[in-house]
Amino acid sequence: MAFPQSDIILVSNGPGELLTWVRPLARRLQRDLAADPAFAAARLHLVLTPCPHAHGQEARSAAALGVFDQIVPARFFWRLLLQPGRYRRWQPHGVVVFLGGDQLWAVLLAARLGYRHVCYAEWVARWPRWCDRIAAMGPRAYGRVPRRWRHRAQIIGDLMADLSRDPGVSPAARFPAPVTVALLPGSKPAKLWVGMPFMAATAEQLHQHYPDCRFLLPLAPTVSPQDLLRFAGPQNPLAATFGVGAVRLEAPSPAHGHWSLCTATGVRIAVVDHHPAHGELRRCAMALTTVGANTAELGALAVPMLVLLPTQYSHVIRAWDGPWGLLGGVPLLRRVITMAALPVVARRGAGLAWPNLQAGRMVVPERIGAITPTQIAQEALALLRQPARLEAMAMALRQLRGPGGAVAALSAMVTEVLRLQFHHRRGRPLPPVAKES
């Protein structure tokens, strides 16, 4: 039986969510829909929602995937919500899938179009009454669903776990000569403002004591090599504060087949500009990273990491999610908010990195506060000289990431909702989720 034409709308916001959640699900849905003749008329769309931390290049990065029939940039979200007919003739039936940002935007869009709503709940589903299905990442998110609505919920696992299905990189492959350290300063401008000069200075310090160490920086889809130079170079006043001298950007050449960021002391940071850079990351001995979705990606790849948040600079709070980040964007309040937020962060027993939040304990070390590149270089050097500690961290991350299969499970849930909606009138609840026996 072939179903009438219908729309599947993925709703997301920032570059991290696009890379780790939207891309794998979109590709899986494209494959599953093409394999089922009943859904030959289904169309896949992406709607980006307002986000104070967005880079502005998310729509272009999503278009490069080549899987969406239409992409609505974040700046047009409110216009879409008010006048959806201006963008296309939306089909009578469809499903809205929440994959990052504020869950309320997906709820409103589904209600406005009269579509069913599937919510991927990483930690909590905030609007369960308006969700036809809740795809819980794990038992914690499932347990937070009120009992009244739990019949709509199902644990599908961590979408990030599907990034790496191999049993893990062996210690011999993890520590090839020369040792490589990954640098992940983030993708949001507020994070790059602090992260790029901080990590460039740390690389210089580490290279002084470990000359054979190599560095690579996986470029986020929304960031260009020229952006890295702008944030690491003299245009950024924090570069002088961290002691970073002249920085230059070298284009790919026969000697180096990639972009390179070169410091005044001769440190060369290889810029990996293809996405995803999982193969390169898996072979890194460790990573220096800021907080955010990159900690989940590194955890899924079982890459040991040192998580950094230098809070002595008020710019960094602007990159935080939630109310702290919003209030930190107000110039007159930024310093006050920073001073108020730090004690709250310090009291968090589970930290800020995603592996630590997921485990409820410190799986990977976090360094939060008035940290310096010299301190971090010394700690990274101590870790590099103890491969057994790094391998133990990698093993803990492999155990934490779960068995995989979440992308396939979420795709199956979306297509199930798409199928059920043709047999249940709009506004009527769908049958409960079939529980495994």
Give a description of the structure.
With 437 residues, the chain is of the alpha/beta class. The chain is built from 17 helices and 15 strands. Strands 10-11-12-9-8-13-14-15 form an eight-stranded mixed sheet, with helices on both faces. Strands 3-2-1-4-5-6-7 form a seven-stranded parallel sheet, sandwiched between helices. Helix 1 crosses helix 17 (406-420) and helix 7 crosses helix 15 (373-384). The longest helix is centred in the first third of the chain and has 21 residues, at 15-35. The radius of gyration is 22 Å and the shape is elongated. The protein starts with 6 loop residues before the first strand and ends in a 17-residue tail after the last helix. The relative contact order is 0.14.
Keywords for this entry:
437 residues, alpha/beta, eight-stranded mixed sheet, seven-stranded parallel sheet, 16% strand
Brief overview:
The chain has 437 residues and is an alpha/beta fold. It contains 17 helices and 15 strands.
Provide a count of the helices.
Answer: 17
C-alpha Rg (nearest Å): 22 Å
Distance, first to last CA? 29 Å
Instruction: Report strand order across the widest sheet.
Output: 10-11-12-9-8-13-14-15
3D shape: elongated
Helix proportion range: 25-40%
List the helices and strands and how they pair.
Elements: E1 7-12, H1 15-35, E2 43-48, H2 58-63, E3 70-72, H3 77-82, E4 94-98, H4 103-113, E5 116-121, E6 133-136, H5 139-143, E7 153-155, H6 171-174, E8 180-184, H7 189-209, E9 214-218, H8 225-232, H9 237-242, E10 247-250, E11 259-263, E12 268-272, H10 278-282, E13 286-289, H11 293-300, E14 305-310, H12 322-328, H13 331-346, H14 354-359, E15 366-369, H15 373-384, H16 387-400, H17 406-420
Parallel strand pairs: 1-2, 1-4, 2-3, 4-5, 5-6, 6-7, 8-9, 8-13, 9-12, 13-14, 14-15
Antiparallel strand pairs: 10-11, 11-12
